Amino acid sequence: MTANPVKTRLLPILAISAALMSALPAGAAVIEELHAQVPQEFINKGINVAVFNDWAPDEFVEDGELKGWSVELSRAISDRLGVTFNYIPIGWDAIIPGLISGRFDAAFSSMGSTPERLKSLDFVSQRMAGTGVAFLASSGLEIEKPEDVCGHSAAIINGSWDHDLLEKMNKETCAAAGLELIDIQTFSTQSAAELAVQSGRVEMTAAARAKLAYMAQKNPVFAVGGLEAAATNSCIGVPKDSELGPLLTAAIQALIDDGTYEEIMAAWGLDNDSMLTKALLITEANPAP
Length: 289
Hints:
With 289 residues, the chain is of the alpha/beta class. The protein has helices at residues 32-35, 40-45, 69-81, 95-101, 161-175, 190-198, 209-218, 244-258, 260-267, and strands spanning 9-10, 47-52, 54-55, 59-62, 65-67, 85-90, 106-111, 121-136, 153-157, 183-187, 204-208, 222-224, 229-239, 281-282.
């Protein structure tokens, strides 16, 4: 094979638009060594990929089209492996259960690895990401360090990495310093969390700072604080011990080596020190440093 003839497919159960079934970039080369390692079951049926549908600029659906830097990276990986990715845009709360049950083979969902998640999943890093906060520009809030969040209300996606971080900040930052705790209010989607802030019901929302900066650029009613806490690996998730873990890691390394990775990040304004220089597979036996 000299080029990847595979088209990305969207499973019929969530067929949002024909736009989600567009072909991969023409002429991009399959890496034969990696393709030879793809299990035959994936060659036959493709790889079922869950994609978070509400996390711009990483992964999101806009006007019926799947977009984001993580989506573009997934397409480049599909291309290098020479295998079809069947995309399933879906809400956050269904992603981890779907990986564990076998409904999904992989999740491009900007996931953080935690000790609890590592009991059932492996992770392939895509870039580094720290948690920030966004609030109404008219609020007068100044959030530059973790202590500045104490005593305020924060909207967060239930069960997210950022949710875990705020719970930890309550114990290790706010309570330890004798400050009022963060009033953590959970929502099922990031859009709902942002709406709660915009309507004045909650003071701020916490999420990946790059995600919030993108949101504030699109909606200037928001401002983003200078805080960027607990930078961690933003990852692809796969079932524990899946053969896809090493394959996806090798494909990302190939994209780093040939410059495609940096091109994708630059196109989304993310060509900074958050980029990887070496691909990383995170497992329970080998957690991220």
